Amino acid sequence: MSLFYYTFIPIVIAFIAYFLNKKIKLSLAILNSVVFAYLFYQISRLYNQWNIPHETISYYMFDREIQLIFQLTPLSWLFIFMTTGAGLLIAIFTIKSQQEYVLRSSFHLNFAILIGSILGVVLAGDFLTLFIFWEIMTWSSFFLISSGEKKAAQKASYRYIILSTIGAYLMVTALFIIYNQIHTFGYNQVAAHLSGLPITESIILIIMLAIPFIIKAGVFPFHVWVNGAHSNAPKEFSPFLSGLMLKVGIYGVILLLYFVPLYNILKESVNYRGLPIFNYILAIFGCITVITGTILAIRQEDVKRLVAFSSISQMGYIIMALAISTPLGFTGGLLHLMNHMIFKTTIFLSIAAVIYRTKTTKMSEMGGLIFKMPVTFTAYLIAIIALAGIPPTNGFISKWVIYQALIDKGYIFLSVAAFFGSIGSFMYVFKPLSTIFLGQLKPEHENIKEVPFLMQLPMFVLMALILLFGILPGLQMNLINQISQLLNIQPVGFTLYSITGAFGKWNSLVIFSLFVGGFLLAFIIFISAKKSKQVGLMDTYTSGEYMDDPEAYHYAYQYFRPFDRVFDSFAARSLTVIYDTFAQNIVKLGNLFRKSIVTGNGQTYAFYMVLFIVILAFAGWII
Amino acid sequence: MILNIFGFLLMAFSAMALGLLFIGIARKVVARVQKRIGPPFYQAYLDVFKLFTKNSITHGFIFDFGAIMAFGGMITTLFFVPVGPFVLYGMNGTLLLVIYLMAVAYLGMAMATVGSGNPLASVGISRALTQMLGYELPFIVVLLTLIYSSNTSSIIGIVQTQQSGFMNWNLINIPIGTAIAFVTLLGLMGKKPFDAPIAPSEIASGPVVEHGGKYLAFIMLQHAVSVVVKTALFVDLFLGGGNNIFIFIVKMLIVWLLVTLIGSIFPRFKVEEGVLFYWRWPLIAALLQAVIIIF
């Protein structure tokens, strides 16, 4: 199948199905699942066929030939595989979960277009193709975010589209400047041209090209759109937004730094400890992203906002690892990218399942759901173990590689930030676990049932992946080393279940077998002791008080208040406020300008006319 | 294979026994500091055996699972910390792993206690996690410095760099780091002044408020193993490890007694005060040390 069809099929099917959906309910969700499953199957067959030739599609616009170029590399294969995989799982999830959602037709229309456009971005063979699909992606995701059920969704999507537009303008300006000089958009030609330019000029162009990607990746100081968009988007779209949309930004960063080897140009600029200053600044931004994301995640009372901030902080890791540009850093960044996609999608899907049943996102309005929704709970539990980076899950392995890369170079402050984020993540992932799933069950949730099987299925698949990659990281390393070869990065040594770091080797099989041993021993001691009697959750030690209201007996609101107290002033001075003040000041300035010129007085306008003629006269036009 | 399983069981049970002995000694020492006679040193064994025979209540399957997870996670951690010459699984790159493996035990315990539905337990867990963010940061900085200066992240490797005499110990090489690690050890073990998570007079012992019978016995066993793991880790990293198991246990006992003595004379920090304390002097000193060693 031609590469072009991968982007074309979802977009066309989306429109067909949109009109079909008016007639038959749910046809769109099922059709989407089938199409994504077909694409997923085709893409998995593409593995190892890296010698597929470039494809060029020409068309004419205003008498000019415009070419769309597509190519397949291991790097783009990784992304199209992840995109269709996540799209498939989420489409299956939505079959049941969106039965009562009003905007579901447009949701699926935009979702399929989004998938198609992401495939286009990743398969693109030059900057123009990339830019076209990039814009389609931005707009379809904008419509998806704004179709959230809350009022705040509109504001959040405005913030998203404004930031994206700024990025797009910068990118298109840079591209046209370059095109004006060399008349091509090809990756290699642009890179060759940039390396010939004076260093300041080429760095400015690189920054202009990089900013749209950094905005999409949600890295400080452009992370302000992430929390609003994630928390207000439809509950089925948040997993995709966090799991994949942010990663497409990362793809752009990889593309610029490694694939179009702009790193070589940057190397000639100022260096700090053997690292170009641009990379170092990017790493520091990553480090600030980790810290801000963590501190703000711990404070949230809305579960989707909490997970959104955690996404911000995890993206900081990936950026940090990619920016330090060592083989280990690159490997760690890509590993974490895949693993974050898997576990963050799981977390958001389990949260979506909870919202589907309880119809709320406030953590203090839930509690004790573990006995009602055990599968959802298990999915959430395994995913947070991975997110907190606890073995034997995939999250630990990628974090371990990143730490090795950071210590290897002696970047002590970056490592402190990484560890802060990691230990802070124990705090923020435990908060929903404790307040939603554990604790006292609310009386109004007495009749809640587990979600339907079609919603459980994606969670089961993702859980299995978390454990699989936690035990056999070699499966991922195989692909990553192929990408490394493509990008001329020295590969990292690995076997099926071990990875070689800078200061030693990681062997997940030993860990896993010891885990089994430890748990077996504990289990045997446990069951050999006397059997215990089961009592209710209200039957606890209360210092002699009589308690009859489970709602009052559930510790959920402001879970980490002592910690939040430390950072109250920090959180009040958030970047969003600064941006908002900036926007307000621009509006004020505009108003001032308008009031002083557009006075509403006829004489003023007459004065303008006279002034205009006088100026013309002085310019020598009339006389 | 059989030998491996035998070694596994031997090491697990001897660590439990050693840890319980340490706990018994600590109770005696604390009693003497407070001018009491105190229980006999073998009281902890009696307690565990008694608790296993008692009737107990559970609050659902997560309560059971959490107890198993806490204990199993701690046992797993044990095998990555060399105790004297006994190294059952000499895997490289284990120092960072140990920190995260301990988190399995904490997570299990936290789930079990919050699963009991008692808000006092939740308050305790929230405090414990907050405090963890406090003490782990300086500790991690010291560990990173250690990894960088020894050029290995395996604990066995770090022990080997300190062989051949007292002057090669990291206690001498990295004195500030050792002091900081000791202060963080107080927090890691939940000793005063960092015992806000279990504060008996405020939140009824916090996490263990609902545990009785075999569950309390499990918590005690887990605590015993964790004492062994943490003191052994400290001895391995800073006091040169040990070729002889007896010398090693004596070193562990010295560390444990110091921790107990210091822990029995201080009043308690408020939660955020404890965190800020760690982020102020220990963290700054640790970073300073790291900068000196790395640059």
Task: For the structure shown, list the relevant keywords.
heterodimer, A: 623 residues, 24 helices, B: 295 residues, mainly alpha, 12 helices
First and last CA, distance of chain A:
70 Å
Q: Categorize the overall geometry of chain A.
A: globular
Q: Give the quaternary arrangement of the chains.
A: heterodimer
Radius of gyration of chain B: 19 Å
Counted beta strands of chain B = 1
Secondary-structure element order of chain B, as H and E?
Answer: HHEHHHHHHHHHH
Q: Biggest chain pair contact, residues each?
A: A-B, 72 and 88 residues
Q: How many distinct folded domains of chain B?
A: 1
Instruction: Give the helix proportion of chain B (percent range).
Output: over 70%
What integer is the average pLDDT of chain B? Answer: 82
How would you characterize the largest beta sheet of chain A? Answer: 3 strands, antiparallel
Topology, number of strands of chain A: 8
List low-confidence stretches of chain B. none
- Reading side by side through the largest sheet of chain A, how are the strands ordered? 5-6-7
Strand content of chain B: under 5%
- Report the structural category of chain B: mainly alpha
Radius of gyration of chain A: 27 Å
Proportion of residues in extended strands of chain A: under 5%
Span between termini of chain B:
46 Å
Mean pLDDT of chain A: 82
Tally of DSSP helical segments of chain A: 24
